[in-house]
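Our consortium's second objective concerns turning raw sequence data into structural hypotheses that experimental partners can test. To show how far this objective has progressed, the report includes one record in full. It was chosen at random from the queue rather than selected for favorable results. The single chain below, 759 residues long, was entered without modification.
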Amino acid sequence: MANDKLRITLEAKSIAACVPLPEELSFMGRALQHQVDVFKRSLNHDIILDLAPTGTGKTRAGLTVLLHEPNKSAVYIAPTNALITQQTEAAEKFICGAGLPHVVKSVSAQEIKNWSSDRVGKRSGEKIYNLLRNPATVFPEVGANKPILLITNPDIFYYATFFAYNKYDKSNIASEFYSKFSTIIFDEFHLYNAKQLVSLFFYLALSFVFGFFQHGRRVVLLTATPDKACESALEDLEKQGVKIARIDGESTTANQLPSQTAVNLEIRPQLERQEWLLEIANEVEKRFREKPDHNGAVILDSKYNIDRLAILLKARGLQKSYGRITGSTPFQDRLSAAQKPIILATSTVDVGFNFEKTPEPSRQNLDWLIFSAKDRFSFWQRIGRVGRVLGKNETDICSEAIVYLPSKAWEQGITSLNCSGGRKELQQKLETIACLERPFLEIYWKSEAFLEIARPLLELEESLEKLPNINYIPKLYQAIQHILGGKRDWNYYRYRMKALKGAEEISNLRIEDIQKELQYIKGSRAFIKLFLKVKYPEHFEDLRAGITPIEAWEKEFKKYEDVSTELKEFAQLWRASYAPLFQFRETLFENLKIRDPHGFLLDESEETIVDTMHLLCYYEFTESNGAIEIINSVEQPYDLSFAWRYFGTIEELKNKELNKLTALANCRIQRSLKGAIKPTPLLTKLEKQFLPGVIIATEVNQGIIIQLSKQGLKSYPISVSCNDFEKTYTFFPGLSGILAIAMSGIKLKLPDDEDFYII
């Protein structure tokens, strides 16, 4: 049958130990061959790619590179805040064992807030800059002028290197991040999305073009599941002269140590939610009843699905036997949940979570695993969580796993899998299943990624003005072009970025300050030209023809308050339209602090932070004394939609707003059930002055909308009230709008009617 279940045994895996150790690594006691290879190959390579399997010590491998420059600072970028804590402890242990002088400091937004403001001021950027400049400035107990090993997350790395901190700190922080570190380690970088990878490749290209590799900088990339597009980008860097070493961790056959048990794997199609969760609950209960001494986990992509599964298991009397670990689970709850025989988790456990038990079992920590996988990368990441036996006494007990793949995989030929061929056959088959691709990497890189990198490029250009190395800027742009594949030249993006910077400055000023300072604002003239092009095309033509000089328009803005007001309003819209391009993570609204006394989300604690859209869609809640309290979990999720008043006709809407990156002024979110709007007082607090995104016609694009939804892009109905008509369209908010248009083939327009596409 089309959706038959498949059964395949994945053979046990081993990894090579290194015997004997190089003298420089003797303090490690024991080490794996890939860890030693990273240390050795980093002597004469710029970028070291460690591809060892999950759970085989890639963190220690990356840290060995510090030994080549023992008195220079380094940064370790961990993918999650939870992992920052874990990797900080690992780094401190390594630094101590190696006898290195580094001060190890973990840096997350919350930790920065907790640092004392007495010595360096209150601004987060100011604190980070002073920490990098001299750790003793912030922490006097560490001693003066020691090298620092910074353990931080991709968000802070992005905002530092892309000049996204406030105007007082952005240049100082960027300078430190670009020049200070001799060793940079990116952990689990395959988890980065298309947009996030732009910052990584920009940093690699800058390190090459500005000569940091020539002066001993080394970048370590840790991943067990490299992406084809990333591999291709690294190959482009290699062609430009960057020396790259790839270490697979499993090529050496001597001195083998067992690392993962054999896994009896069953491959199933994902069903409709209710039937699917019931099937999983049956499987979990069966395993627990038959072997209560065995440990297992369920990893699903949706927090709501985990919570609904918990309800099913609770009804079967298993509430004391499972623990939930999601992005909303407080740290202490994670620790206690990990001790339960059944762990229900989201992707938050995909990295750095080892399912450790106390006391530690002599066999694998997970005997069985049930999980979903929407792409082949999450499949290999998750299947690597079960049956880990590196360092264990018992290594020959088979593990069990069930994976749920998109039903589309059966249409695309997964049933032709040779189930006797083991891991190799499965890997080759999954490579042929199109629905398991990560679809957005090259698509985003060849669309607006170049405007994103134009910000740091322009900042660097301005800082290097009148200096000899100003010529590095076009070289850096060309290097990025080779990696990402764009075709427009640097002058095109320099102009657009200048206009955007002008808009950002103008949008923050009072009207009277605009009238006084407009001619002194960087980028203001570029933005004035765009303002005229969009709002007054006939005046723009006069300006372009030289009939009216730009100075005349500056005088108009200075003279007339209403004209300056219109300029500011347009600047605010322009700035909001592009905001998703310059945010590391995509969120429509700030996360909310909630109370959960009845345990709908949490097993032990009563307070946590949740995504606003998740709260609105899946829970009933009330507000009391400023606190939001969950009172129920809904069986049928709410439908979320938007409402927007457009001051124009329906034809004007079609001509000016559809298929266009824009920002909707005073757009409201609403929730409904079975077509009936649910009054929700909290929603008034979520109204934003501008909501960026793209509106497209629903009927003619229905197939595209469904396809994009399957690929993970969320869209919402939007009711648009025009002067003469009201109609419902489809709204892709934020970065989803950019990706939706790029993926769907509809030609997106920018606010000035320039084409979005580069290719």
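The partners drew two points from this record. The CA atoms of residues 73 and 568 lie 43 Å apart. The mean pLDDT is 90. Both points have been shared with the crystallography group to help prioritize constructs.
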